[in-house]
Amino acid sequence: MFKNDLDQTTSKHIPFSVETIRAHFPILHQVVNGNPLVYLDNAATTQKPLTVIEALKTYYSLDNANIHRGAHTLAARATEQYEKTRTTVKEFINAPSSDQVIFTKGTTDSINLVASTFGKTYIGKGDEIIISTMEHHSNIVPWQMLCQSTGAILKIIPISDTGELEMEAFSNILSPKTKLVSIVHVSNALGTVNPMAEIIQKAHAVGAKVLVDGAQSTSHLEVDVQELDCDFLAFSAHKLYGPTGLGVLYGKRDILESMPPYQGGGEMIKEVDFEGTTYNDIPFKFEAGTPNIADVIAFQKALDFILAVGRHNIHAHEQELLQYATEKLSTIKGFVPVGTASEKVSVLSFLIENMHPFDVGVMLDAGGIAVRTGHHCAQPLMKRFNIEGTVRASFAVYNTKNEIDTLYQWISRIAKRKN
Amino acid sequence: MPDITTVQNEIIEEFDILGDDRESTIFYIMELGDKLSPFPEEERIDDNIIKGCQSKVWLATREENGKVYFLADSNTDITKGLISLLIRVLSGRTAEEIISSDLYFIEKIGMGSIIGSQRSNGLTAMIKQMKRFAIAYQAKSKAL
Question: Is A71 helix (H, G, I), strand (E, B) or coil?
Fold first, then answer.
């Protein structure tokens, strides 16, 4: 039933057909609470193609060994596959070189790494860090903690009622005091695509560095770090059809080389002596301890899948779903969209009048429909809209118009109860 | 007034009729919430908010002729429905009855699978708070 031929087809494009694509995802073919599963919680995490699942099994069945410095065959095989993923990630984001790709635990870990190393070295008392109202908590709290320990100041770019950054306000708070601008590329709660190129250009003009939180953008858009000219890019594998517990931090070479290590331990050293230790080169300087070898190796298959389907195809399909869902659900009495930016990825956040998002979520679950409800780890954003939370449906490459029809039918029924 | 066991068994029977139909069960719980007595605005204070609930829950009590009465509200319909079941079982009982009650109906009606483990924690917090009020009334009456 499931296609397991991606190994043979990675260099080719998979002809775009949702049914063909769905066949690669075993989890989608199940019944939940008496109804076929409709998985619309992709902004939280995406499902995994069989090739990723198989890669994990193969690694532990045949290739498991600790990487680097091993004289034996299994260690060589594991190392080769691990480093191959790094090269693929480099190509995926068009980094100049693969040693600028650091494997982390996830986007949160990547941002904390930058806050703890770059932040503590280059940001001091009175310096300013700019974020925005629509940040995920993981792009707020690390900077608050840094500000508390250094005396730096956090500045916030406000957003409009449609959920777009107020770019004029951004220009006004930018100054030579700004040392870092850390902005979400795509809002997880609203789907808004932010004008990163413009933000980066303006920040660089005052000498500030820019971190792009790419947790939600890398799965929907082609993110080219050289074209963007960002200083850092952070993202997670599990939102890119890959395994959980794995992320990436890309950084510009001179910055990464000038940053102190994040954690001390094995792998990150060149030489250890009780008199002092010299650190390894990038990326290993930032990968202390045995890394998440199995998931890095399996992540290769997730990237192969995306590249085989084609990012432009994925984007086009998701945009079609977004438009279809927005138009269809807007006809329901009591449906209130939250976040209506002109440029969005396939995230539809909404409220049903007179209903708490949690109640809507539980009702949809009865229909086998998985959505996320609540504040989406973006409480300041919810406060901006004066709401407690939203219902969020987020679409991925394997979702269909039929599934949106199911969502529409259930929302209509639920909304009718109160409106 | 029927005893705690009788009321619990009545609830179990009502939910049995709904069977495995999850949608009907949820709608039924929400309807129960709609029927909850209005919550007095003066009681809508931070001290009456139950900690440990994902949604907001307010719980107020009063004692009359040795019986403890509960009033509650929530910002979500499902939680309101769940509180209404607790109130149906526990409100108007003596402190001793409330403290010693074994609320087996919650598991029997399969609440855990419908509301999820996080919400179950909230439900546990509600029960704890109701019992805490009863313990306080009991201590007060013994002191007198």
Answer: coil
Q: Which of A34, A359, A374 sits opposite B78 (nearest CB)?
A: A359
Q: How far is CA A364 from CA A129, A219, A399, A408, B26, in A?
A: 40, 25, 16, 10, 11
pLDDT single digits (tens) A30-74: 999 999 999 999 999 999 999 999 999 999 999 999 999 878 999
B75 contacts A388? CB cut-off 8 A:
yes
> How far off is chain A from B21, nearest CA to CA, in Å?
9
| Range A6-48+311-418 has CATH code 3.30.450.180 | no
Whole domain around residue B58: which residue ranges?
4-143
Residues of chain A contacting residue B29, judged by C-beta atoms under 8 Å apart = none
Q: Does A355 touch chain B (CB under 8 A)?
A: yes
Question: CA A214 → CA A93, A251, A327, B2, B52, distances in Å?
Answer: 11, 13, 27, 60, 33
Catalytic residue among A377, A384, A388, A405: A377
DSSP state of A346: S
CA–CA gap between residue A259 and residue A114 (Å, rounded): 9
Report the greatest alpha carbon distance in chain A. Answer: 73
- Is A230 in the active site? no
Nearest by Cα to A353 from A314, A387, A302, A313: A387
Choose which CATH entry (3.40.50.300, 3.40.640.10, 1.20.120.340, 3.40.50.80) describes domain A55-306: 3.40.640.10
Which chain B residues are within 8 Å of A414, Cβ to Cβ?
A: none
Host H or E run for residue A369: strand A369-370
Q: What is the DSSP letter of A271?
A: E
Question: Tell me, what's the ipTM?
Answer: 0.85
A412 at B interface, C-beta within 8 A: no
Cβ of A3 under 8 Å from any chain B Cβ? no
> Contacts of residue A370 in chain B, CB cutoff 8 Å?
none
Per residue in A303-351, pLDDT (tens digit) is 999 999 999 999 999 999 999 999 999 999 999 999 999 999 999 999 9
**Nearest-by-CA chain A residue for B76:** A356
